[in-house]
Amino acid sequence: MPPISIKAIAIAFVAELAADFICQMLLFSVFAGDTSTSQMSAEELQALTQKIIETTAIIPVAMVLGMATTVGGAYFAARLAKKIPYYHGLAMGIVGVVYILIVSRGSFDGYTRLGLLLTIPASLYGAHLARKQMPPES
To answer: Would residue 82 be called left, alpha or beta, if left means φ above 0 and alpha means ψ between -120 and 50 degrees?
Structure first.
């Protein structure tokens, strides 16, 4: 098996997590609108979050943005490694699947299953995009 750059995978995964966090915060503020304030208690915030999840399209939008960050993370990993982009994309996909399994804690709703099914193909697509930008290997 060719050597995979653990450093490239780690940097790209942290960048992907940061992008996911920023997207989630922006989505929440967009969907919450003026109903969210900094003086809310933890219970009020939890109730608001549940209401947003139940009454808006935040989950599908978050799913699309999550897949976009997955493609971007794999692209970034492949570009950082500068060689064997598909292996780095696959490694990012595997790390992503493991992360989903850890975060979901055995709760496999439809969106979690969809995320598990699409993470590796999305990562390979990101690696493919990176491969198109890389010079041909000699």
So the answer is: left
The answer to whether residues 60 and 82 touch, using CB atoms and an 8 Å cutoff, is: no
- pTM for the model stands at 0.85
Collapsed DSSP state (helix, strand, coil) of residue 20: helix
CB 39 within 8 Å of CB 100? no
Domain assignments of the chain as residue spans, ordered by start: 6-133
Cβ atoms of 27 and 53 closer than 8 Å = no
CA distance 91 to 63: 21
User: Residue 12, exposed/middle/buried by CB under 10 A (0-12, 13-18, 19+)?
Assistant: buried
Task: Determine the Cα–Cα distance for residues 106 and 40; give it in Å rounded to an integer.
Answer: 30
pLDDT tens string 79-121: 999 889 999 999 999 999 999 999 988 777 888 899 899 999 9
Q: Is the dihedral of CA 124, 126, 128, 131 positive or negative?
A: negative
With contact defined as beta carbons under 8 Å apart, do 63 and 97 qualify?
no
